[in-house]
Amino acid sequence: MLRLLKVWFIDNVHDILIFVHRTFQMIMGPVGVIALGTIAVLIVTVAFQMSRVPDLKTLNQYHGADSIQIYDSKDKLICNVPLGGTSIAVPLSQIPRGVQMAVLAAEDHRFYQHPGLDLSGISRAMLANLQARRMQQGGSTITQQLVKNLFYGDEQRTIDRKVAEMLVALSVEQHYSKDEILAMYLNEIYFGNGAHGIEQAALKYFGKDVWDLSLAEGAFLAGLIRAPSFYGDPEHRQEAFVRQWQVLDVMVEYGYISQRECSWAKSKMLVFKSINSRVVIHPFNRYPYYVSFVLDFLRQHFTEAEMRREGLHVYTNLDRVAQEAAEQTLAREIVRAPRGVSNEALISMGAKDGAIRAIVGGAHDYWSNQWNSATNPHTVGSLFKPFVYLTGFLENQINPNSRIDDAPIKIPVEDGKIYSPVNFDHRYMGKITVRSALANSRNVCAVRVAQMVGISNVVNTARLAGVTTPLPQNYSLALGSAAISPLELIGAYGTFARGGLYIKPWAIRRIDNRSGHTIASFGPQVRRVFPDEPVFYLVDLLQEVVEHGTGTQAKLAGRPVAGKTGTADKARDIWFVGFTPDMVTAVWGGNDHNLPIAGHNVTGGSVMAQVWRDYNRAYYAKTPTPAGYLMAIKYQGAGTEVSAPAPERRRARSSTFRIAHVRQPRRPMRVIQTNPPETDYYQGAIRRNNNITDYVWAR
């Protein structure tokens, strides 16, 4: 019925207006024209209000569940998250009859007799509204209140909304039995103090389940419904007790209870005891760190009222294989971590599209400490050095085979002080190539390059790559004195993996409302921030880190890897951030108290590189490279392309790292030189005949 009414209203509004116009012209003349405008506005606004109502056949799928349904990358449901610990649905059979009768007495004693509208109640409300000259009362039945709560929320009372509410209420009565409507109502209605639904109200006010409520307690809760914010306030407890007695008296009046039962209930002293732990009952115990990240995003863009009204269905990029591999790896690795490493975190995204596949913000139970270390900052140490060397490539100050003096250095800084960095091993190697300097994470060399190009330019490079955290403008930044989150770091290293294209990591693909209408959609926003060749140089050096440098523990058999180790001062934070052609992953280890990690040679390379490797092994064991894929060569060495000493030229080699998978084409691929349309999909970078081409995009 409702669907037909909605279609009829929307499709025939024009004809209705013409009919009303002609009728008023014939019958009432000029007076009718004035009334015509009022009726026309009412018709249009009622049609609009009704168009917002979803299919009532699915009403019982979300009653009492002002919740967010979250799905993974394959559109499989992960969890149903109640908003702020909202209602906990219980069947009507588990709600004591005395509690049901108390609500009926308080709100709608003719509920089982009327068809969804109570004409006597509407008449009383209309009289009160005329006397007050505003919409003061609604005369709402329980069915109308249910419709209001589900579809219209706290919107202002208007005539058009009231008319639409009545029409929808009549339709609800045709779709559901009285008992079903009452159950939906009791599981949905607000009782104050953040308690939605009768079960949560029982826990919130009396610390017990609804089926254990006494008549006195049920009458108290029923009395809250009329003005929950007022009566639910402990400061208005006396007024709430008066309201409770009124409900009990009405129950006697309508024959729900005897006078003796009423007197007994009034004599009972109510004991208030809240149990919050039962209200917030681990609603997303699967993948809690990823889900909490999604919820944080939603709270930034929607009010709770909007989320309750829309009934959000959120479709994410969560890859269950990646997420479970991450959780299992950290749970296993934290047991054998060095003393002082009491926590670890991991975040992983697709290299091609920036879609966040897995988030684990801690190695222990989420509910014992809900701090997400994957999205909060930690001191990065040598992870920052790639930004320094990339700046040197961009400024044409260095190339991979340039030589830098790995020797003590003293740099005058402000206030007449001297900055003198030292290497991790307190040794010096003399003049070495940029390739060797980054592969072996030589501190002095990084500072020399930063001095050469200017620290402000280094900061600008980090900004363009995707680092938004405030960065200090001093030379210690070259050694990673800044605190940056793993989330930002995978975004920045993803820029390297894509050859200079930045995509902000994103977790949500689209958001639908409970009617199935998409209200927001998201995708990779691609922006070129660096020319490709300097980035290719850097990626080649990062591959050297894994092949022969500090990150050898991150090697994967048969798969190219590029990345960088990081160890903060006094080993308070240890890292590895790396990427394969299709995955960018950051792993962090440390503790929640910023204390030094005990033990000899505890570094990102010796500890976290292994964690990174084990996670990727577990992931790729279940997601092998698809058949029909070729690996595109990204960089053909530098020995014959730049000026370098003869020994370095003799050691010039072809890089084996490939930026991304490229499917064997059945037709020539189109090369796009600038940012592609959002509908295109990033595939990789290739070199043809030793000439760098730009990125290949395929529909």
Can you walk me through this structure?
This protein has 699 residues and is of the alpha+beta class. Among the domains are: 2-51; 86-267, Orthogonal Bundle (Penicillin binding protein transpeptidase fold), CATH 1.10.3810; 630-698, no CATH class. The protein is 41% helix and 14% strand. The strands form 8 sheets. A 5-stranded mixed β-sheet has the order 2-1-3-13-14. Helix 1 (2-27) runs antiparallel to helix 2, helix 3 runs parallel beside helix 9 (215-224) and helix 11 packs antiparallel against helix 12. Mean pLDDT is 80; it is low at 134-138, 277-283 and 627-699.
Strand content: 5-15%
Strand order of the largest sheet: 2-1-3-13-14
On the 0 to 100 scale, the average pLDDT is 80
CATH topology of one domain: Penicillin binding protein transpeptidase fold
Q: Count up the helices.
A: 23
Low-confidence stretches: 134-138, 277-283, 627-699
Indicate the structural class: alpha+beta
Query: Which radius of gyration do the C-alpha atoms yield?
Result: 33 Å
Give the CATH superfamily of one domain: Biosynthetic peptidoglycan transglycosylase-like
CATH C-level class of one domain: Mainly Alpha
Biggest sheet: strands, sense, closure? 5 strands, mixed
Search tags:
alpha+beta; 5-stranded antiparallel sheet; disordered C terminus; single chain; 23 helices; 22 strands; Penicillin binding protein transpeptidase fold
Summarize the structure in short:
The chain has 699 residues and is α+β, with helices and mostly antiparallel strands. It is built from 23 helices and 22 strands. The radius of gyration is 33 Å and the shape is elongated.
